[in-house]
C-alpha cells in the first residue's frame, strides 16, 4: 500500500482512498470547431504511456473528493510529488535524473511519497532503445 | 412537504421544508436493522456502545470560506473551520460545522432547525456565489463510545485513530469497512460516524461483528 499525500487534506492517506484518473495537464482545444479531426482525436483518445516520469490526475475519492496531480515513475511506482490542480510539476522527465543523481528525493514542500520498490530491480532497469 | 420558495429573498431557488406539516411516523436509517433484531433496546454492559442520532439536520455548504464564515458565524455562532479536517462545535456540542473539502462544509444541527437555518443563511448570503443542499435524508450519525471504541475503529478504518492522529476537533473523510465515512472526534470520549443512509445497516452489522469480542450494543432511539 502507498501513503499518498493529498494536497487538499494536507496529509498522507492510504491508497485505498484514492483513484487514478489518467494523464494530467491535457488541454482542450480552445475552439473545437476549427481543429482537424486528427487533432481532436488526439485530444480525446490518445494518451502518453511513458516509461519513467509521468504526470497523472488522481482523485481523493473517499476523502475530500478533489482532483489533484501526481508525478509518478512508471517503472518503480515511486510517487515523486503531488500538487493541486492548476499547478505545474516541479519534477519532470528532464529534471528527474538530475535530482536523482544529487540524491534529492523530495519535491519542494516534502510532498512526495516513496512507494514500494520492485523486488527485482533488473526487470526495471533502463535498457537502451 | 410545505413549499416556501416565495418566502425567501432568493426566489429563484426552490427550497422546501422536508418536515411534513402533519406529523407522520418517520423511520430512522436503522429501521431495517431494528426489524432484523440488530438494535438493542437499552445499552448493554459491553465495552463498546454505538448510538444512532437519527433525524438530525444535515446541510452541505459550498462556496468561498470567507463569505461562508461570516454567514455561519452570524447565524449559527460557530466559526467555519478554515483549516483542512477541522470540526467546530457550539458550547453544548449539539451543532457543528465540519470541513469536507476546500470549498465544502457539513453543518449538523438538531432535527427541525435545518430548514430555518438554510433560509437564514440564504438571506444573509444574498447574491454571493454559494450552494446549500439539505442532505438530512441521505445520511445518519452514529456515536461510538466505550473504552474499546478505538479498538473497534482500528479494525474498521485505515486512518490513525489514536489521539495524535485524530485529536478532538478533527474530522476526516475516509474508508470504513470498504464504505465511506465521515469520522469525527467531537470529544475525548467519543467518536462520530456520519454514514450514508443506504449503508447504515451494513455499518451496524460491521460494528456488531468487530465489537463482539469486547461486548457491543447498538441503540437507536425511535423517532
Ligand atoms: Zn483529500
Provide a concise account of the structure shown.
Chain A has 129 residues and is an alpha+beta fold. In chain A, 14% of the residues lie in helices and 26% in strands. Chain A is globular, with a radius of gyration of 16 Å.
List keywords for this structure.
heterodimer, A: 129 residues, alpha+beta, Folate-binding fold, four-stranded antiparallel sheet, two-stranded antiparallel ribbon, 26% strand, B: 223 residues, Gyrase A, domain 2, six-stranded mixed sheet, five-stranded antiparallel sheet, 13 strands, disordered N terminus, binds zinc ion
Account of the protein in words:
The complex is a heterodimer of chains A (129) and B (223). Chain A has helices spanning 37-45, 93-101; strands at residues 3-6, 11-14, 19-23, 53-59, 67-73, 79-84. By secondary structure, chain A is α+β, with helices and mostly antiparallel strands. Chain A has a single domain (3-100), classed as Folate-binding superfamily (Folate-binding fold). Chain A has a four-stranded antiparallel beta sheet with strand order 3-4-5-6, with no helix packed on it. A two-stranded antiparallel sheet of chain A has the order 1-2. In chain A, strand 1 and strand 2 (11-14) form a beta hairpin. The longest helix of chain A has 9 residues, at 37-45. The two termini of chain A are 32 Å apart. The relative contact order of chain A is 0.19. Mean pLDDT of chain A is 82; it is low at 103-121. Chain B is α+β, with helices and mostly antiparallel strands. Chain B has one domain (28-219): Gyrase A, domain 2 (2-Layer Sandwich), CATH 3.30.1360. In chain B, 22% of the residues lie in helices and 32% in strands. Chain B is built from five helices and 13 strands. Chain B has a six-stranded mixed beta sheet with strand order 10-11-12-9-3-13, covered by helices on one side. In chain B, strands 5-6-7-4-8 form a five-stranded antiparallel beta sheet, covered by helices on one side. In chain B, helix 2 (65-76) packs across helix 3 (114-125). The longest helix of chain B has 12 residues, at 65-76. Chain B is globular. Mean pLDDT of chain B is 92; it is low at 1-8. The A-B interface holds A 8-11, 13-14, 16-17, 62-66 and B 83-85, 100-102, 104, 158-159, 172-175, 180. The complex binds zinc ion.
Amino acid at each position: 500500500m502507498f501513503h499518498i499525500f493529498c494536497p487538499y487534506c494536507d496529509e498522507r492517506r492510504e491508497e485505498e482512498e484514492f483513484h487514478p484518473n489518467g494523464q494530467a495537464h491535457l488541454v482542450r482545444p480552445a475552439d473545437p470547431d476549427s481543429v482537424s479531426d486528427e487533432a481532436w482525436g488526439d485530444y480525446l483518445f490518445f494518451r502518453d504511456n511513458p516509461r519513467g516520469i509521468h504526470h497523472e490526475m488522481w482523485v481523493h475519492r473517499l476523502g475530500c473528493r478533489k482532483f489533484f496531480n501526481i508525478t509518478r515513475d512508471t517503472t518503480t511506482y515511486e510517487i515523486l510529488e503531488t500538487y493541486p490542480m492548476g499547478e505545474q510539476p516541479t519534477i519532470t522527465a528532464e529534471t528527474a535524473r538530475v535530482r536523482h543523481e544529487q540524491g534529492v528525493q523530495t519535491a519542494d514542500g516534502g510532498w512526495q511519497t516513496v512507494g514500494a520498490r520492485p523486488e527485482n530491480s533488473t526487470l526495471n532497469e533502463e535498457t537502451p532503445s | 412537504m410545505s413549499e416556501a420558495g416565495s418566502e425567501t429573498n432568493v426566489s429563484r431557488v426552490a427550497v422546501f421544508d422536508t418536515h411534513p406539516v402533519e406529523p407522520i411516523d418517520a423511520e430512522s436509517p436503522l429501521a431495517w436493522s431494528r426489524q432484523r433484531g440488530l438494535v438493542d433496546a437499552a445499552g448493554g454492559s459491553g465495552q463498546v456502545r454505538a448510538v444512532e442520532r437519527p433525524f438530525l439536520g444535515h446541510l452541505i455548504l459550498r462556496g468561498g470560506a470567507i463569505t461562508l464564515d461570516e454567514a455561519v458565524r452570524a447565524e449559527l455562532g460557530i466559526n467555519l473551520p478554515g483549516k483542512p479536517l477541522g470540526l467546530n462545535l457550539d458550547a453544548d456540542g449539539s451543532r457543528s460545522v465540519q470541513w469536507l473539502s476546500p470549498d465544502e462544509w457539513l453543518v449538523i444541527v438538531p432535527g427541525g432547525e435545518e430548514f430555518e437555518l438554510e433560509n437564514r443563511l440564504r438571506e444573509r448570503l444574498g447574491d454571493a456565489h454559494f450552494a446549500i443542499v439539505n442532505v438530512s435524508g441521505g445520511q445518519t450519525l452514529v456515536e461510538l463510545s466505550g473504552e474499546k471504541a478505538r479498538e473497534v475503529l482500528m479494525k474498521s478504518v485505515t486512518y490513525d485513530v489514536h489521539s495524535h492522529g485524530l485529536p478532538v476537533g478533527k474530522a476526516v473523510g475516509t474508508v470504513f469497512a470498504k464504505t465511506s465515512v465521515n469520522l469525527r472526534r467531537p470529544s475525548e470520549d467519543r467518536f462520530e460516524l456520519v454514514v450514508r443512509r443506504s449503508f447504515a445497516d451494513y455499518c451496524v452489522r460491521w460494528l456488531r461483528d468487530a465489537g463482539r469480542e469486547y461486548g457491543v450494543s447498538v441503540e437507536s432511539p425511535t423517532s
